[in-house]
Write a structure and sequence with these properties.
By secondary structure, this protein is an alpha+beta fold. The chain is 41% helix and 18% strand. Strands 8-9-3-12 form a 4-stranded mixed sheet.
Amino acid sequence: MRYQYPRQSRSKWLVLCVGLGLAACARSRPLPQLPVALDSPDLPVECRPYLADLHASGERNAVMNYECLAMEALFNPKLMPAQTRRQLVEHSLDEAIRRMDMIVTDTAEARKARSLWFKESSKDFKGEPYERAMAYFVRGWLLMAGGDFQNARACFKSGMLQDAVTEEDQNKGDFYSMDFSQALADWGAGDRDQGQTLLVAARDGRASLPAASQQANLRLLFLVGNGPTKLAMGEYQELLKINPGLSRPAGIFVYPLGKERASENAQDVAEIENVSFQAVTRGGRQVDLINKHKAVWKATAQQLGTGLMLAGGTVAATSNDNNTRDAGAIIALAGLAVWTAAAMMATQADTRVWSNLPDRICYWEAHVSEATRAVLLKFQDQAGEVLAYHLMPVTPAPQNGPPATYFLKVW
């Protein structure tokens, strides 16, 4: 089953582009209407750059901007009404997923990326496998929090498929937080046996995953730290290097609070995914090989062009015969043409990134009493020193209802 996102119509038009005496036609699609306008006073200032670039760069950066906009709105409730914020987050992720599902290899944009003369970043951004998987992960959890368990587990299945397209066989299909989350969605959909089977399989793959309970009525999902970054490397910036992200707290503890004081026995928060690990172990990409070939052609052509220019220039300058001088000049001009073509070869790797992803994802659940009205969170560093406390209001789910789910962004 595939996640069914809302369908919206698209239209296309031709835009005339003129530059340096060259004219070309490029296709563009109008972006769908968002639940909040760029000039709306409800839109937090942190969201504005992504929405502005969404309209400025169009489809080329649409997936990246939708993803960043969704994450920023999810954890930034300032000014924005709750319903508007929820609509903006869900709409943005749906639009990003819609475009990721349209990945094909024989399009004008894909051919442009394979060409010697266009940068990889000239194509429409779809993201690396870990970025695409995280879009499905976050959308799946939002659906599950809203009680849509069928679409939620379809999202988690699609997210696992994104991880399966990585080039490194050793780490293919190891996004076990997807299986873990799908097991919770299976329980919510009433498939208790299937959910239990999937949970056991996920914990067999990653022993650190928690033993979830079907009786939990409160769930906390922590997105911890700052996610991976990208860097272009190599003589011609042709190779993509992904650097792991950073997160400060090493331990997170939860104390449920009711009418009485907090329990002295803190409940540890379990890490269910390391996003940085997923990013840096993805293996090589096909486009890395394409860029490598571009770099080889660039170096070879530059050497050839330089040699022809030197040889032709030497012949033209030293020969006493007019015909020989003319031949030398022609050779030098040919070398200049080859060298210029080499200089125009675009080899740079694409370093666009979903910039507000977390470094790690942690999870906590419990069956708490109906009197619970808040949880006290304690954050510790690697040495066990307390970094901060945070008191968060919560409302447990009513009996027989889906667990109440809260999303937290931690530095």
